[in-house]
Amino acid sequence: VEPAPFVSVPSIDLEICYNFLPPFLSANVDEVIEEINGSSGDDVNFFFDPAGTQPFDPLSLSDIQQLIFSGQTTIYAQAVTGNCTSAIVPVSIILTNRPEADAAGPLSVCNDGSGIGAFDLNSLSSTINGGSGDAVNFYTDAALQNPILTNPFLSGTTTVFATVGSNTCQSEEVAIQLIVLQQLMLDCQVIA
After folding, report:
1. DSSP state of 101
2. DSSP string computed for 116-133
3. Which tens digits make up the pLDDT trace of 76-114?
4. Is the pTM of this model over 0.70?
5. Nearest to 84 by CA among 168, 8, 3
6. Which of 8, 27, 110, 115 has the fewest CB atoms within 10 Å around its CB?
């Protein structure tokens, strides 16, 4: 007789970030599954109901739409290994509509004499987040793999990218052109 697979009520919420038009869906499903199955690698099935009769796919827009319309804030999960299943446990969910990032820039600064300028990226935050106060994240690449962690950002003329939101729910990126003016600092005036 095989023992029932390990199962645990996750200590973190299943955070689902969605948008219907254009369609978009992301979630921290892998993290939640690891908490549910204790990182055992066992499969985890999700359900709308505590009896486990109505399957739920956290990466299905139609299932997310059903959650939104029902107002449901809990789904249920069960670990599966071979033919054995665990008890069904509740999983709290947070549904977040994907934020939008507004275009900003270009941002021009004076040349420090070496072709480098000091760009105050934070000065664009309220434009990018539409004044919402949501976090704005800056990156040196469109793949969003290299965050810009310092402000001001020292660079030559280039393009950087910004998103609005958190790691779990970020907007699409917007490109921001950064321009270093050719005049030296003494002769340069940036007109906004």
Report:
1. -
2. -EEE-GGGGHHHHTTTS-
3. 999 999 889 999 999 999 888 889 999 998 999 988 888
4. yes
5. 3
6. 115
Read off the tokens for 20: 């219907």
Q: Contact 99/19 with Cβ under 8 angstroms?
A: no
Asked if 176 and 157 touch (Cβ cutoff 8 Å), the reply is no
Strand 107-111 with 174-184, pairing: parallel
Q: What is the pLDDT of residues 28-48, one digit of tens each?
A: 888 999 999 999 999 999 999
DSSP designation for 3: P
- Show the tokens assigned to 138: 């800056």
* DSSP states along 18-54: EETTTTEEEE-HHHHHHHHHTTS--EEEEESSTTS-S
Q: What CA–CA distance (Å, rounded) separates 44 from 38?
A: 11
Between CA 89 and CA 50 the distance in angstroms is 8
One-letter amino acid for residue 70 of the chain:
S
CB 7 within 8 A of CB 36: yes
Strands (E), 24-126: 24-27, 43-47, 55-56, 74-81, 84-85, 89-97, 107-111, 117-119
Which pair of structure tokens corresponds to residue 89? 């446990």
pLDDT(186) > 60 = no
With beta carbons less than 8 A apart as the criterion, state whether 166 and 93 touch: no
Could you tell me which residues come within 8 angstroms of residue 30 by beta carbon, excluding any fewer than 6 positions away?
Answer: none
